[in-house]
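Hi team,

Below is the intake form for Outer membrane biogenesis protein BamB from Rubripirellula obstinata. Please confirm the fields before the structure is written into the shared record.

FORM ID: S-0412
PROTEIN: Outer membrane biogenesis protein BamB
ORGANISM: Rubripirellula obstinata
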Amino acid sequence: MKSINHKLERLNLNAVLSFIAAVVFVSLISGHAKAESITPTTQVDEYQSPEEVTSSGGDWPQWGGTRLRNNVPGVTGLVQEWNIGKFDRRTGDWDKSKAENVNWFSRLGSQTYGNPVVAGGRVFVGTNNGSGHMKRYPADVDLGCLLAFDESNGDFLWQHSSEKLITGRVHDWPLQGICCAPLVEGERMWFVTSRGEVRCLDTNGFYDDEDDGPVKDEPANVTSIMNAGPAAEAHAKTLEALADGKLSDAAKKSLADAGEAVEGDIKIETVTEGKSWKATGNFGGVDRTIAIKQIGPRIMFIKALGVSDKREADVIWIYDMMGPDMGVSQHNMCACSVTSYGDLLFVTTSNGLDESHINLPAPEAPSFICMNKNTGEVLWRDASPGLNILHGQWSSPAVGVFDGVPQVIFPGGDGILYSFRADEGTDGKPEFLWKFDCNPKKTIWRLGGEGTRNNIIATPVIYEGRIYIAVGQDPEHGEGEGHLWCIDPTGRGDISPTLAHRFEDDKRVIIPHRRIQAVSEKDNETEDDNPNSGVVWHYSFFDADGDNDIAFEEEMHRSIGTCAIKDDVLYIADFSGLLHCLDAKGTPDRKPIVHFTYDMLAQSWGSPLIADGHVYIGDEDGDVAIFEFGADNKEPIEEINMGSSVYSTPVAANKTIFISTKDKLFSIGK
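The structure came back. Fields below:
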């Protein structure tokens, strides 16, 4: 097994400088940090039921396709054989002479963890800036990027750019980009940026020649001149020229390199002597005013985005979860793939520990929030994991209706699954329904992944009145013991498998949940079966050959992948590279029925796709294994290499498979 070391890449100079630019950018958009007062100018389409989305065989508009999060689209006409051709490692040129069943490919960043979403004739993918699609952001500037491509031919349409947070890797790990998948409904899209913002965008970008937001003329960093090293002279000459009402040659070159070449005469006005100016004229063929600011060692050039900026995102509203209203402190990244129920938008905030991996900087900040998706107003918030957050919170919510009650299911950073009524709440608080501890009580949390207690990275899946969830940890923590649960969500209160007790004066006393270890036997503590348990079945291992010895292939390991279930057959990949196939119903005595496991011989980060009678799953070696669907089909019919690691999940829509590799997006079909 290859070890994961994806975070060891180092920032280059320009990426470091972009941290400084991020400070400026934050100050510029601070007026948009809260969106409670925003009134929508355009309503999104009416809510579409999960059944309509799944049965249509058409678009796949969010992670898992619907709020049920089950990656089982009703798509037909898919291919099971393809060849991506060859790519020159030095130039990147595509030799397609032997390519087969590849409609097109588009370049992504250098690291891609976001899953594709297909809606309205477009494909949306989260990645980093390794391809440098925007002139104002060359590829060596580190960003979180959400890219939009034309579904028919892969043409790049527009990009949403999130500059890196000045606080660095504790909040915004270098080169990780946008790690979530967006939610699309009609002409509106919602996603979480790497800066901890919830943003609503117009899926058309500015191609509809409208600036649709309440957020109008959003300021954007165009370029800058740095007073450091060889650039110091250019910096000094630029300041001197600005004082004389002119642009220096260095400023003009910098603007041209960013796609804003100066054409004709430019009028320079001083706003604050020696500190800020504005330049009015034609830049890149567009008449506009560019703000110029001297901030620390940099001279910043800033434009207001508008309908002329076709390659930019059109922002409707912004809510900054790290701002003073909420005060979230995300750990390494914010990675929630949001979902909705009617006009309600549900978000996991990613609140977590600091760089010490011990302290929780914002214990009062919420872990889960509900927003009005049209306005960005926060309707309720909840901080149930509290001080028991183990590391970070990078999972995503699901929404189902059980016995007529709509429930939003949130995986907590304490390893507990929480359910709340999926409504607007009361006085800013949700109605709590139940909680389920996904870790056995005697498991223990140790730094660096050496313990047995786990986070929840996967997304809960809802299937025929049951909830399915696996536990796992940050990929850097490596492999370890895992658990897969099937849960009955109709109970209330604590529906965990067991309860923690201690004896006081010969009486059992329930122990409040603890972060490191819930039950310590040496302290006269015990766990007992919970009479209110919601367990339908639990899978951690099975003795397939009956030899009373549990082999590697007979264990459920840590997983960051999500289940996919069809016709009572469940597939899930664990991080150790095993694909597990089980009966989704289990046995009446709470035991799993395991059909088989298959070793992919490489670690797997993603989740299975079940579509058109087949199962598709990728791995870190870049192989996509394809199985015929069904419990008896234990070996893949094909394993196709994609040229680089497949950290994401294959999706299918409109008779096409979409796979994002580490650095490319492929459209695969007849």
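SUMMARY LINE: Confidence is low (pLDDT under 50) at residues 1-46.

Thanks, M.
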